[in-house]
Amino acid sequence: MHIPYLEIDNNIIHYQWHNSETASEKNVLVLVHGLGLDLNSWNLLLPLLKKEYRILQLDLQGHGNSGFNGLTPILDVMTHDIHRLIHHLGIKQFHIVGHGFGGFVAIQYSYQYCEEVLSLTLISVPVNYPVKLAEKQITKRKEHSRHSESLESLGKELIPKICYQLTEENEQILLESFRRVNKKVYFMLFHTEFNKSMQKYLKALDTPILLLTGAEDPVYPPELFSITLNLVPYARFLTVPDAAFAVQLDQPAIVAKWIHQFIQQKSVARDNLTYNYLADLSNEIRSELTIQNQKDQPPNNTIRVNILNRFEVFINGQTILQGWGKRKAKLLFVYLILQKSVTRDELCDVFWPDLPLDKAKNQLRVSLHHLKKIIEHAHLRENSPIVVTEREHVMISGVIHSDYLIYKELLQNSLKLTDPNQKITAYEESLTVISDNLFPGLYNDYFLRICYQIERVWADMAEFLSDWYNQMGDKQKAKKYQEIMEQLGYTNRYDIKL
């Protein structure tokens, strides 16, 4: 075990790096402690996980043996510290676990550096804590520690609520952490202003998420923590028995087992998948309810997508210009627009057919995260996301308008006509949009097949019109539609000459 410090921006960050000869390269855990605690709050988990994982613990700024450089905003600084530390150690990808306020840091890191984070575990993270109640707690804690530079006395009051069955070992771990925490940093972090940004980040994440809560937690009870599922309905929510706020101290064996199972289940190969009936049932019901709600209630956001001859996206009237050239964003968004609701497996098959499912799903997760960030720049209606991600499904929510969907309906209606005069008028109107640059920038087999189908319909329509005008003696128009056929790579059985 190596116990160094890393100097970052004129400050020292204390960490512990537990290497493992038996752990794979991607089996890396980054553990982020809660407010007022330090890296020792994870000590009981280490012997249970270090055979399977390489583990990084650190003291956040102003906690444990880490200093405080006075830079703000403090949450951004802490996220930056972890990013620097991760790259200092040469870690490419990892699973991050955040406890309490440490969950805020983990959420922000997952949002900013989604390519690095394979999964996110949140333990008792107060994303939805009531503002008025929180303000009362803040005032109470400030008053309690007003006459002391140390938070030791505050720790003595809080510790019985942090652990359910307090052992002497756990009490010493917690008490020592409160002795060492920087009082200024503690109260810089202990407020409710982070909640909205955390909720926004969680909604945008497509990372596999595990939520752990203590069944006996009086600080942030399970009933309150479960509301987080409204932000991330695809997350797994588990309640740890006989545990309070610090479940990793109360029930380390259960917590280690559940984190390991969660991570392993996210890495199963395609041909080894075993589906849990209740999980599938829950996912299907949630998806159907979401779709039904969209039918029953008019969605708030208006989406207009032009793809026939140029690519344009308007959301609530605002043009979205940036970001479409990266991470298959354009392809993915248009596919979702056309399909409305699809499974993750289907998206993997369409856009990453040559990759194993676990790698394809990771690529999909990163692409969806990027897509959500592009759309964020639009003025979305409150609590109305456009890209809705669930455990098994991905959906588009909103009123959708597309030149292709309108044109597709025009073609379908034209092909149903039986009256010759109506058919001629409809066919000629359909061929006014003919182009040799259909679906520009959408280079994927799925869209190429649609292009081929449209061109085949155009050729059939052009052949009908060429034959019709040839029979009517209008050689000029007959020649016009014959040339359209030739442009599309088809030939008429007649050689029309003017």
UniProtKB/TrEMBL annotation:
UniProt entry keywords in alphabetical sequence: Transcription, Transcription regulation
Annotated signal peptide: none
A biological-process GO annotation: regulation of DNA-templated transcription
Domain of life, per lineage: Bacteria
A molecular function GO annotation: DNA binding
Domain AB hydrolase-1: 27-137
Protein name: Pimeloyl-ACP methyl ester carboxylesterase
